[in-house]
Design brief:
By secondary structure, the protein is of the alpha/beta class. It has nine helices and seven strands; from the N terminus they run αβαβαβαβαβαβαβαα. The protein has a single domain, classed as NAD(P)-binding Rossmann-like Domain (Rossmann fold), CATH 3.40.50.720.
């Protein structure tokens, strides 16, 4: 009996030590200061720029505003010039001492037109001292209704549109701009916790899974090539103030500005893929503890409910 007690006591001590280490690691990661300022430096008297795709509203605009407050000049991107002009005015109203430009580009252009547009963007960017590239553009294909549907209900143009929105444009743009990025520089990719594999948004979920894996590969490639480029992927959960969600922000569901602050706070933290908001990180950690059968049951139930809500919004 005494041996059993010793074994149980040892297991308990090891478990306590393990959980304490996880807690300390969590606190260290979320309380440490950001190294964002590492990327704020001039080059031959040129001030640093941050290029944020998909930045006319939502998380992209939130990131642009926070980067502007950190002293970066801002290069916006979107497909609606009216919204981009409004975003430009919003940023300049808060940060009148910086420069703000924007690029109009539809990310869903077909093959050769896409490559031509990427070359045009490269020509516009090459004379700027861009130290930060934020790949934020993504989402469902423009005009896709309903958003939640089975794979067999997803039309060909919707499949192609989601690949273009979430993968093709981002990969071509990043490939074109890496040679222009100085050392050091930052590539920040916005993924999603939906990368775990969610029904009724299978294409979007799979595309975000690609962003996760691609970020890890690109980070290791930059290390292998001795490039001083930090590559980071942020996985949001629900965030308000976006084109899909207009509710008021709350403790567990931050607005896009609060989320942007948290995201930039993760720069230099030593992780390649992480959440941008501490409550999201806790929730992901709790989800990871669930047995697969419980997780499957919860995901199926939740996504069915979301699909039904989406149908009623049509």
């Amino acid at each position: 009996m005494s041996l059993l007690i010793k074994i149980l006591a040892t297991l308990g001590s090891l478990t306590l030590a393990s959980q304490t280490l996880k807690l300390l690691t969590f606190l260290k990661f979320w309380l440490r200061p950001s190294t964002l300022s590492l990327y704020h430096y001039p080059l031959s008297s040129q001030p640093p720029w941050a290029f944020i795709t998909g930045s006319s509203d939502g998380i992209g605009l939130g990131l642009a505003l926070e980067l502007a407050h950190s002293g970066f000049n801002i290069l916006l991107h979107g497909r609606n010039p009216t919204k981009l002009s409004a975003a430009q005015s919003t940023i300049l109203a808060e940060c009148p001492n910086i420069q703000v430009k924007y690029i109009v580009a539809d990310v869903c252009l077909p093959g050769d037109q896409m490559l031509q547009k990427i070359q045009e963007i490269k020509d516009q960017v090459k004379d700027l001292h861009v130290t930060i590239l934020v790949n934020n553009v993504g989402g469902p294909a423009p005009g896709m209704v309903p958003l939640y549907k089975t794979m067999q209900q997803t039309q060909d143009w919707e499949i192609d549109g989601q690949i273009a929105m979430n993968i093709r444009f981002t990969c071509h743009l990043t490939s074109a701009l890496i040679p222009l990025l100085p050392n050091p520089a930052l590539i920040l990719n916005i993924g999603s916790v939906s990368d775990v594999g969610l029904p009724y948004i299978a294409m979007y979920s799979g595309a975000k899974g690609f962003v996760d894996s691609w970020t890890r590969a690109l980070s290791r490639e930059m290390r292998a090539e001795n490039r001083g480029i930090e590559v980071l992927c942020i996985r949001p959960m629900k965030v308000t103030g976006t084109s899909f969600r207009k509710e008021k922000g709350e403790w567990g569901m931050p607005d896009s500005r609060t989320f942007a602050k948290g995201t930039l706070g993760r720069v230099g933290g030593g992780r390649v893929v992480t959440e941008g908001y501490w409550v999201h990180s806790i929730r992901v950690g709790m989800i990871d503890l669930l047995p697969e059968w419980i997780l499957m049951k919860h995901i199926v139930k939740t996504m069915k409910e979301e699909a039904e809500k989406d149908k009623k919004r049509e």
